[in-house]
Amino acid sequence: MIEGRHFRRDWSSGYDVGRKAAAQNLADIAAMGAVPTSIVVGLGIPADLPLAWLDALTDGFGDECAVVGASVAGGDITRCELVVIGVTALGDLGGRAPVTRSGARPGQVVAVAGRLGYSAAGQALLEAGVPVAADELARAVAGHRQPRPPYACGPEAARLGAVAMLDVSDGLLQDLGHVAKASGVRIELDPRALEVAEPVAAAGKELGADPLDWILTGGEDHALAAVFPAQVALPPSWLVVGRVVAGEGVHVAGRAAGPGGWDHFR
């Protein structure tokens, strides 16, 4: 995470950044069906960084790790012109094979767990300079500052027989496109099945935007998207939003989806 690209110190506290940096990497472990165990941190900071900000950052690392019973195992630090954070996360598969992106086959279903659209809606509110005194708008901004990945749903999906899975870091369309490509299939999404949470809907109303766009293309919520055999009975933590068919790419309501989500070099 690079200051000015992935976070702004005038928008997010050191604590926010620490929790977010840990969360986005711990979510990758959960997305392979593993239980996170620890992180190591590479940190570059300016010489004039306030010590209180650094203390808050490390508190954020520790508190996010505590959510999943993991710990900060160590790392390294150097002087840098900007705050730069590199996190490596480790986890335990419990003897299972990892769930990758390449196991989807026609006839299976696509489901999501966790929140979608919060981070993109919160960022849009911050960029627009909208006062967020209203509870729902404040919840959207909080979702941008501190994502809440559904960590337990990763190992749960593996136990249920998920054949492909990843966390939604760059947008649902973009990330499911990775599954479709790796598996050699097409994914058909039903937008009517996607839930629009109240904070995302409120932000859309405030900004005159379609909240579905944030749900489909917004990243950094680190929800989980997985593919399951059709006969698997999914618990309430998983919402079926589409199906796998023969073909390629991702289609929404029967139409091919164009480039959507975050691509660093597009």
| Main sheet record | 7 strands, mixed
Strand content: 15-25%
- The SS-based structural class is alpha+beta
Q: Overall mean pLDDT score?
A: 96
Estimate the global geometry from the Cα principal axes. Answer: globular
Count of spatially separate domains:
2
Q: Quick one: CATH class of the largest domain?
A: Alpha Beta
Spans of at least 5 consecutive residues whose pLDDT stays below 50 are: none
Number of helices: 8
Question: How would you sum up this structure, described in words?
Answer:
The chain is of the alpha+beta class. The chain folds into two domains: 14-92, PurM-like, N-terminal domain (60s Ribosomal Protein L30, Chain: A); 109-256, Phosphoribosyl-aminoimidazole Synthetase, Chain A, domain 2. It is 35% helix and 23% strand. Strands 5-7-4-8-6-9-10 form a seven-stranded mixed sheet. The chain has a three-stranded mixed sheet with strand order 2-1-3.
